[in-house]
Amino acid sequence: xxxxxxxxxxxxxxxxxxxxxxxxxxxxxxxxxxxxxxxxxxxxxxxxxxxxxxxxxxxxxxxxxxxxxxxxxxxxxxxxxxxxxxxxxxxxxxxxxxxxxxxxxxxxxxxxxxxxxxxxxxxxxxxxxxxxxxxxxxxxxxxxxxxxxxxxxxxxxxxxxxxxxxxxxxxxxxxxxxxxxxxxxxxxxxx
Length: 191
What we know:
Order of helices and strands: HEHEHEHEHEEEEH
Helix content: 25-40%
Strand order of the largest sheet: 5-6-4-7-8
Radius of gyration: 18 Å
Number of helices: 6
C-alpha cells in the first residue's frame, strides 16, 4: 500500500471523479484520498478482500461510489438475462465459463464471480464450484465456474443453463479493451 499513498499524496491536479483500474491493494489509500478530497470514485478493480470491501462501504457513506467487476453494458445485460433464464428454468444446471489472456492473475475472474453471485439471487441454495476435477457427481444446486487462460483473449463470459431437454447459452465477448473505459466514463458521469 505504501506506493499508493506516496503517489496520491503528490497529486496536485483537481478532478471531478476518480476512476480506479489499478489494483485492489491500493483500496485503503485510494478511498482515504477520495474521502479527504470529497471525490466520487468508480472502482473497476477486482479481487478485493472483505476488509477492502468494508473500507469501500464505509467510504460510500461519505462520497458517491460505483463498484463493479465489469464496466461493460453488455455484461450487465448478460447478468440480467442469465437471472431471468435461471429463474424461469428453475431446475436447470448452470455453468459459467470465462476466458482471458494468459497474463491475467486472478481466477475465476471478478466478472464470473459477479455473474455467479447475481444468479444466487434467484437460486438461493446455489453452491459455487470453482473448476471440476476427479470423480465427483455434479450436485443439483451447483453453479460451476471454469477459467481458461490463453493467448490475448480480452474477455469472454459464457453462461450455460441446461436441462435434460434443452440448453440456453448466453455469451458476452469483449472485442476491445476500450469498452471498459467507455463504461467507466458512463459510470463517472452517472456519479
